[in-house]
């Protein structure tokens, strides 16, 4: 059975995989639509500013990037801190907004 599968893969799949690896791929363009607020670590905490979308035509991978982009620990925490600061209510939560 092993020999049969190995022969099939070598005769039918391997050649196609080799051919596919030679195909030129189009360049990927990273550009989100609309207006973007870029949150970043500034050494003391997190800052943010409105950026032109072409600012994101490339990305820099860092150890903190994945954590920063997770909704529950990244974005949610940043936006919650922002809202608490602007409302002057350090017990603010987004559920309060839904009940208003």
Structure characterization notes:
The protein is α+β, with helices and mostly antiparallel strands and 100 residues long. The chain is built from four helices and two strands. The chain has a two-stranded antiparallel sheet with strand order 1-2. The longest helix is centred in the N-terminal third of the chain and has 20 residues, at 2-21. It is elongated and about 70 Å long.
Q: Strands, helices and their partners?
A:
Blueprint: H1 2-21, E1 36-41, E2 46-51, H2 65-69, H3 71-87, H4 94-99
Please provide the ordered H/E string of secondary-structure elements. HEEHHH
Q: Which of globular, elongated, flat, extended, rod-shaped describes the shape?
A: elongated
Mean pLDDT: 77
Per DSSP, the total helix count is: 4
Question: Strand share of the residues?
Answer: 5-15%
**Structural class by secondary-structure content:** alpha+beta
Give a count of the beta strands, DSSP E runs of length 2 or more.
2
Q: What Rg is obtained from the alpha carbons, in whole angstroms?
A: 24 Å
N-to-C CA distance: 67 Å
Share of helix, binned: 40-55%
**Uncertain segments:** none
Q: What's the story with the biggest beta sheet?
A: 2 strands, antiparallel
Enumerate the strands of the largest sheet in spatial order, edge to edge or round the barrel.
Answer: 1-2
